[in-house]
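Student: I would love a firmer grasp of how sequence relates to backbone shape in proteins. Thank you; the sequence and its tokens follow:
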Amino acid sequence: MEGAELGDFFFCSGNISLPPIIGLILLKCTYLARCTCNCVECREGEFTDSENHLPECRRCLQCQANDGKKTKTNCTITHDTVCSCLENFYSTTNGNECRKCAECNAETDEVEQPCTETQDTVCRKKVHSSVNPAAIVIPIFLVLGAIAGIVGYLCIKKKYCRHIVLTEEHLQMIVMEVEPKIYHQLGISLGQTEPMLQQIRADYHDNIKQQGYHILYSWLQAHGKKGAFPALINTFRKLGYVTTAENIVEKLIPKQEGTIDTSTLDGSENDRVADMVL
């Protein structure tokens, strides 16, 4: 192990007495490993911070400014990049996800607690603030009307949703309707783990749309195609992205309508589909 120091992490290739692995393997260079190998450090932009049998070093995480992040600690061959939030952003997950600080309404609110790196802005109502009741009631009615319209629209479309089998082409279309800033939140809601999301982001750091696609693709592989589309639409609605759900349904369902025999759907079937979509 010429050039390797005891306890350092390197690439090793050669014959070993441990379980055989074809090609390059990653071991901690120790005398107890009993391996004959030529050790090479990870290249710039890659790292490994623990013993494992991966065929290559891991790619360093990129702190993206459009995600509200900046680099706190640069990547080395033994430690990944550490990100922190930009000004006017905060994180409750040690920089894994940065969110934009809320702004208080200058007319009705005042700042009780300014935004910090770990906590959002806290607003409170101004004392003796006089607000025209119409300014509150009218927007509420407008919002309720919009929600009623969306629900009615989905009621018309709902009987088709269960029959849609998601394909890779569908996932590409869906990604175009989703704002990149919610990729992480969507992945967590779909059951993806934090390390998995970080690896996807690192692998496709130069193409943010590919990040969204592979988050959906890995979820679809785990979930299975049966019932995937209603489950995905329901997830968007639970997260509050009703318009996004509506746009996705609008784009996917018209392509399916001509192939669906709606006469085969009885009342109980419609009820089950309605429960899944709404």
